[in-house]
Amino acid sequence: MKNMILGLLVVGSVGCSHMKEAPKTVEFTYAAELLQKVQLGVARAPASLELETEEQPSPRRVYFSALYQQYLTLGQHLNKKSDIQFCPAFHHDKIQTDSTIVPKVTIYPASQIDEEGKEFFPELAFNKKFSLRDYHGVIKGELETLCEEGVSDNYFKFDNLVTHYAGKKSFHTKPEAMKSVLKIPVFANFYLVKMLEIPGLHLESPEEKRFIKLTQTYWFEKYVTEASRMRNNFIKNKMVQR
Question: 84-95 as b/e, with b when 16 or more CB fall inside 10 Å?
Answer without folding.
Answer: beebebbeebbe
